[in-house]
C-alpha cells in the first residue's frame, strides 16, 4: 500500500521508521533482526536510506586523481524487497539524483515495480563522493524536483525510450523538507519556494529533517501552508544516545539543539541515553497533541529505545 493510502485510512496517528543498510561485510540477518525488533510497534512503513560508495581522493605524482572506495553498503532496493516480501510491511526506497543517470533511475524504478514496491522518497543526495562522469547519451536529475518529475512521467507511461509492452508505473513520491532550512538555502523562504517546486512536480508527501524543538516543525508547517503546500508533512524524530552527538548531529544535519537540551546534556553527559529518550518522548507527545498524521523515527538501527517510546502510544 502507498504511504498516502496509509495516511488516508489511519484512524490514529501512525509511526514509521527509517533504517540504514548495514555496511559491506554484514549480512541480511542484520535487517531481519531490526525488522523483527520493530514488530511490537507495528510499523506503518519502513524507509531504507540510499548511499553511494564513500571514497577518498588522492592526487598522484603525475597530477591525475586516484579514487579509492572505503565504504560500501548493500543496495536499498534489495533490502526493501526482503522487508516487503518477507514481513509484508510496506517500504519506502530512498532514491538519489546525484550519482545516477536518468536511465539508471528508470531501471531502478522498473525493478521496484517488479518487486511490488510503490513508495519512493525522491532526494538529491550530497557530497563530492556522488560526482560521477555521465556517459554519452545519458542525462541526469540535479534537484529532487527533477527526480519527482521523472517518476511522475513514468506514472503517466512516459518512458525515456519507447518500451514495447511497457505499462504505466504507480509510485507514491515523498520528498524531504527542512524545518530549520536546507544548509545551502539562503533562507527558509527560498527553501520553501523550492519545496513548493517539488510539490508542483507531483510530490505526494513531505518528511522533515530531524529537529529537537517542536516549534520548528509547527512553524514550518504553517509557512508551508502559506506557500500553498497542502500535502501531508510528516515530522522526523531522532533519539539522542551519546554526548558526542551534541557535536556530530548539528555538524551532519545542520540543525540546532534547544538551550535546555544542551544544558541537560552538559550537566549530565553520562546520562544522555536517558535524557535523549525523555526528550524524544516529550516531542512525540507534543506532536501527537498538535495533530500530526504520523511520526517518523530515524532509528539508525537501534530499536530498543524507540520501541519503548512508541509502545505506549499504540492503540
Ligand atoms: P533538493 O530538494 O534538490 O534541495 C537541495 C537544495 O537546492 C536546497 O537548498 C533547495 O532549496 C535548493 N533547490 C531545490 N530545488 C531547486 C531548484 N529547482 N532550483 C534551485 N534550487 C533548488 N541523503 C542520502 O544520501 N541518502 C538518503 O537516504 C537520505 N535520506 C534523507 C531523508 C530525509 C527525510 C531527509 C530530510 C534527507 C535525506 N538525505 C539523504 C539528505 C539529502 O540528500 C540532503 O539533505 C541533500 O542535501 C538535499 O536533498 P533534497 O532532496 O532536499 O534536495
Describe it.
By secondary structure, the protein is α/β, with parallel strands linked by helices. It has one domain: Alpha-Beta Barrel (TIM Barrel). It is 40% helix and 18% strand. The chain contains eleven helices and ten strands. It has helices at 3-9, 28-37, 76-87, 102-115, 144-155, 188-200, 214-226, 245-253, 259-267, 272-289, 304-311; strands spanning 14-19, 46-48, 54-59, 65-71, 91-96, 119-123, 172-177, 205-210, 233-238, 294-298. The strands form two sheets. An eight-stranded parallel barrel has the order 1-2-5-6-7-8-9-10, surrounded by five helices. A two-stranded antiparallel sheet has the order 3-4. The longest helix has 18 residues, at 272-289. The mean pLDDT is 91. It binds flavin-adenine dinucleotide (FAD). Flavin-adenine dinucleotide is lined by residues 49-50, 94, 96, 121, 123-126, 143-145, 176, 182, 184-185, 191, 194, 197-198, 207, 209, 236.
Tally the helices.
Answer: 11
Which CATH class? Answer: Alpha Beta
Summarize the main sheet. 8 strands, parallel, barrel
* Radius of gyration computed on alpha carbons: 20 Å
**Share in β-strands:** 15-25%
Report the end-to-end length measured between terminal Cα atoms.
Answer: 21 Å
Averaging pLDDT over every residue, what do you get?
91
Shape: globular
What would you call the structural class? alpha/beta
For the biggest β-sheet, the strand order reads: 1-2-5-6-7-8-9-10
CATH architecture: Alpha-Beta Barrel
Give the domain tally.
1
Q: Which molecules are bound in this entry?
A: flavin-adenine dinucleotide
What's the count of strands?
10
Helix content: 25-40%
Which fold does the CATH topology refer to? TIM Barrel
Provide the succession of SSEs: HEHEEEHEHEHEHEHEHHHEH
Uncertain residue segments: none
